[in-house]
Design a protein that fits this description.
Layout: H1 8-25, H2 32-38, H3 41-50, H4 55-81, H5 87-111, H6 115-134, H7 144-149, H8 152-161, H9 168-178, H10 180-192, H11 196-230
Helix pairs in contact: 1-4, 2-4, 2-5, 3-4, 3-5, 4-5, 4-10, 5-6, 6-11, 8-11, 10-11
């Protein structure tokens, strides 16, 4: 019930836990979309703790987000087990994850008195996701394993941004270390060692870098499309 896009944390920590929960959920009449919506209360609760900004509240909030990251895998596992996979379910899951990310940075920014940085980070996240969803899904030539390691919305960004010039293995590691499952666990660790401000700093840096790459990819893919349209046929 795992996915090829799973990162290290999902594969070795989150999935072993979520599978046990899913085994129980399969015994009750619950729809995967219903599970997706029901657990969205967790980011709301976590946000309420993060807004308080003190050490204990931030740790609790980060821990709840880590729990959300684990439980978020159950909807897909239920869908695959019951053959209920759907485009709507994928979009709903993506939208809830997206909103949860915005809640995290905005609440943490407000709680840690870095509200401007939180708003900027949220803006980077939103703009990047908008470009990823609207971009091309084609990916330049890579191995099948690497192709399956990324979600479709990342294919265009990787293929057109020039990242592959750094090597496929480098790109694979870069994405593994910046996946959401890895981020949630690292953020919890930062909260535990009282470095909560670095959660926001790191997220802003990664979101800004992703936005730059997505922008480059969008421009390059647009130019390529223009070249294809205006190129004269050879005689």
């Amino acid at each position: 019930m795992s996915k090829p896009q799973d990162g290290f944390v999902s594969r070795f920590l989150n999935r072993p836990i979520s599978r046990r929960i899913t085994r129980f959920l399969l015994k009750v009449p619950i729809h995967p979309n219903g599970w997706t919506i029901s657990i969205f209360v967790l980011p709301l609760i976590a946000g309420a703790f993060l807004v308080r900004g003190d050490y204990a509240s931030v740790v609790i909030g980060a821990a709840i987000f880590q729990a959300f990251s684990i439980l978020d895998g159950c909807d897909g596992e239920i869908a695959r087990a019951k053959n209920l996979e759907s485009t709507f379910g994928e979009r709903l899951d993506y939208f809830c994850d997206f909103l949860a990310s915005l809640i995290y940075v905005l609440a943490l920014g407000l709680g840690r008195h870095h509200s401007v940085e939180g708003i900027v980070c949220a803006g980077f996240i939103a703009a990047n996701e908008w470009l990823l969803r609207g971009g091309k899904n084609e990916m330049q030539i890579v191995s099948a394993m690497l192709h399956e390691s990324y979600y479709a919305r990342h294919h265009g960004m990787i293929g057109h941004s020039g990242l592959l010039n750094l090597g496929e293995r480098f790109v694979w590691w870069l994405f593994q270390l910046t996946k959401r499952d890895m981020a949630m666990l690292v953020f919890l660790m930062l909260a535990l060692v009282d470095l909560a401000d670095w959660i926001l700093h790191l997220w802003t840096i990664v979101a800004a870098a992703s936005l730059i790459l997505s922008t480059i990819a969008t421009i390059r893919s647009s130019v390529a499309d223009g070249d294809v349209v205006t190129r004269e046929p050879r005689s």
